[in-house]
Specification:
By secondary structure, the chain is α/β, with parallel strands linked by helices. Helices cover 24% and strands 35% of the residues. The chain has a single domain, classed as Rossmann fold. α3 links the parallel β5 and β6. Belongs to the purine/pyrimidine phosphoribosyltransferase family.
């Protein structure tokens, strides 16, 4: 029944998996022999992070952070940390895992926060990037796909807490969120 709410499939499950394999090769090369901290930005990145972790073949630590700048379908412009890390980032290389870079505000805030706390470096790995909607100067280090300015769901992306469990990335019909 969820499929009836989807206007079109932007990336199939197979396309998502192939792109993640390619991204993992680059990350594996860079972090071989190191012990970075992978930070999953919840809730959207939980599926992406889980699948990416299985593709990484180096030792790592994992933590989660929950931050938000959204109310419903719109960004408020103000970022707040709802659930903080339990791991000290001082001197650590950090990989932030995110589902989508939209305005960029949340990830810019988190990157600056972790660097202020003493992280040695902070890189961003995101499944999707929506450059048309960017409000701040921010670039991801590992990006799955650049996407158009559409309301996307599936593979962790949601509308009102729904559709995260779709195995593909799709465009939600406007009548659902309008």
């Amino acid at each position: 029944m969820m499929n009836n709410d989807i206007e079109s499939v932007l990336y199939s499950q197979k396309q998502v998996e192939q792109r993640m394999d390619e991204m993992a090769k680059d990350i594996n090369k860079k972090y071989a022999g190191e012990l970075p901290l992978v930070v999953s930005v919840m809730n959207g990145a939980m599926i992406f992070t889980s699948d990416m972790l299985r593709r990484l073949d180096f030792k790592l630590n994992l933590d989660i952070i929950k931050a938000s700048s959204y109310e419903g379908a719109h960004s408020t412009g103000q970022v707040k940390v709802v659930q903080d890390l339990r791991t000290d980032v001082k001197g650590r290389r950090v990989i932030l895992m995110e589902d989508i870079i939209d305005t960029g505000r949340t990830l810019k805030y988190l990157k600056e926060l972790l660097l202020k706390r003493g992280a040695k470096s902070v890189e961003i790995c995101a499944m999707l990037d929506k450059p048309e909607t960017r409000k701040v100067d921010l670039k991801g280090d590992y990006i799955g796909f650049d996407v158009p300015d559409e309301f996307l769901v599936g593979y962790g992306l949601d509308y009102d807490g729904l559709y995260r469990n779709l195995p593909y990335i799709g465009v939600l019909k406007k009548r659902i969120y309008a």
